[in-house]
């Protein structure tokens, strides 16, 4: 699944890069929106095909970097035999963070006018969002890189984001952000295909990974309630299937069915967050707090959109999508983290042994000399000096040997003069 996601991401990146490189697309874009059809008379020229090779190369490079960044230990070991650089934890986390940061910057670039209402305009928004998302995903990837479910789901989330970018770059729908996010899938061309395919594949990936995303919750340390794990997985599957419905049914087709699928995804996510303490008795506090915070953010966004009119439906939909994927990534990263070592009998936390500390040798209890040595010398400490036999001890030994040789009845003085 990771390789397939990386391949689709590479194709979407190639489309974005080709769009940015070609003068035809640049002329046809109205500051981050619209494609060739948005400006009359702008057409694709044969000379523009010269940018196809650099675009494909850029897409292949990004795809290869993501494959390495999301590789398992076995895959990294195989690549290490080939002598490839950049296989360390930090290098792989940087590749992931830079990709997410670039996604944020390009997202603002293609919807620049939507951010002009904020202080600093779209330029400041691009810097802040790019730096924040890049740094956050770098730290997250570095922390959770050993978890297979996280590495896979990270690419699924990235596929939806990059597929949306590809659609934004070439869509002929103009200022689509003034309507709603789903407008990207209504143009019946390659731009719509990029968006719809990305959301369908991402939704299917969520549904398929429901067991992997919640596998750690089944561990005894979380004390999952009866039916709690099944309920969590059912809600995650429902979120994924609903997103598939959003992609398969464009909003300009069966609008009611499209909206019903989107509402089902939102309701399933709300139930998943609100019932976080019902699924298991000892859910991590950070996950519980993040769940309630996600609900609060979504409620505030709904009020700001529908009640006050601070922003439009597109912003609300982006917030909702972001919360869903961020919460699922947090679920994996938090629940799969290594628990503290405890004594099963007492429940007390155990301190790991220090590096270099001596451990008792098996079989030492069978030898009295070994026991005596263990008592006299503290573990891990070298004796200050080794005792040596004294002259008095040697003389006593000679007297005893003489007595055994000449007879035990002779006095010691006689034996010594003899």
TrEMBL record:
Residues 395-408 have a biased composition (Basic and acidic residues). Coiled coil: none annotated. Pfam families: DUF998. Residues 370-379 have a biased composition (Low complexity). Residues 357-418 are annotated as: Disordered. This is Uncharacterized protein DUF998. It comes from Agromyces ramosus. Keywords: Membrane, Transmembrane, Transmembrane helix. The chain crosses the membrane at residues 50-72, 93-110, 122-140, 152-170, 190-218, 230-251, 257-280, 287-305, 311-334.
């Amino acid at each position: 699944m990771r390789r397939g996601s990386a391949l689709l991401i590479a194709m979407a990146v190639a489309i974005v890069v080709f769009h940015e490189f070609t003068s035809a697309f640049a002329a046809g874009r109205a500051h981050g929106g619209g494609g060739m059809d948005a400006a009359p008379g702008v057409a694709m020229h044969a000379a523009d095909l010269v940018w196809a090779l650099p675009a494909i190369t850029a897409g292949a490079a990004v795809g290869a970097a993501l494959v390495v960044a999301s590789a398992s230990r076995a895959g990294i070991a195989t690549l290490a035999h080939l002598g490839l650089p950049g296989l360390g934890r930090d290098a792989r986390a940087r590749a992931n963070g830079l990709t997410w940061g670039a996604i944020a910057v390009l997202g603002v670039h293609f919807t620049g006018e939507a951010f002009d209402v904020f202080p600093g305009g779209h330029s400041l928004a691009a810097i802040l969002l790019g730096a924040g998302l890049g740094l956050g995903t770098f730290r997250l990837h570095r922390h959770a890189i050993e978890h297979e479910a996280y590495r896979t789901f990270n690419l699924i989330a990235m596929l939806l984001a990059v597929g949306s970018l590809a659609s934004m770059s070439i869509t002929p729908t103009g200022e689509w952000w003034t309507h709603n996010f789903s407008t990207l899938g209504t143009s019946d061309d390659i731009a719509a295909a990029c968006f719809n395919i990305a959301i369908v594949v991402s939704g299917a990936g969520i549904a398929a990974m429901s067991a992997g995303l919640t596998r750690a919750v089944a561990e005894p340390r979380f004390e999952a309630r009866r039916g709690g794990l099944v309920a969590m997985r059912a809600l995650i599957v429902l979120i994924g299937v609903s997103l598939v419905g959003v992609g398969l049914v464009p909003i300009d087709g069966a609008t009611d069915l499209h909206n019903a699928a989107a509402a089902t995804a939102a309701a399933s996510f709300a139930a998943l967050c609100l019932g976080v303490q019902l699924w298991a008795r000892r859910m991590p506090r950070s996950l519980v707090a993040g769940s309630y915070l996600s609900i609060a953010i979504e409620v505030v966004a709904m009020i700001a959109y529908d009640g006050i009119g601070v922003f439009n439906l597109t912003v609300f939909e982006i917030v909702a999508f972001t919360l869903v994927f961020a919460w699922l990534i947090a679920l994996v990263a938090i629940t799969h983290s290594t628990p503290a070592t405890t004594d099963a009998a007492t429940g007390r936390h155990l301190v790991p042994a220090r590096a270099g500390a001596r451990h008792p040798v098996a079989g030492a209890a069978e030898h009295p000399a070994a026991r005596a040595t263990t008592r006299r010398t503290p573990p891990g400490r070298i004796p200050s000096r080794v005792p040596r036999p004294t002259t008095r001890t040697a003389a006593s030994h000679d007297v005893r040997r003489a007595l055994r040789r000449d007879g035990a009845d002779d006095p010691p003085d006689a034996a010594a003069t003899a």
